[in-house]
Amino acid sequence: MKLFSSVFGISEISLRMGSILGTCIYIRGVFLFTRYFGQKYVPLYYMTPVLFFTNPYVFDFLVVARGYSLAMGFTMVAIYYAVQVIMERDTVLHASLFLVFMSLATLANLSFLNLYLALSEIYFVYR
What we know:
Blueprint: H1 2-8, H2 12-38, H3 42-53, H4 56-63, H5 68-88, H6 92-108, H7 113-126
């Protein structure tokens, strides 16, 4: 927040910059997820972005300046890496990226701690 207010001054844009960045990360995570599953299931390739972006609750959380959008964006990217690790038994790099992104989601909004613990447990069971 201090970085954004020093760049943009004290304004609405500096307050909303976290939400804007979180939305960009969320969009990137959805497209990573879609690209991964779209190779195997073609109908999901076209329906997944529509379902993820038209949900009114997701849209509402992406515009609130409370850290929800950052947490949702980091969670979406973390789920992508978790699916890669579980489905393909991939490298340690993807596993560590999963843990890093889930940690960032928890730091962005503490209410994601339950999700972090549940996904971490699933990861360690399937590993």
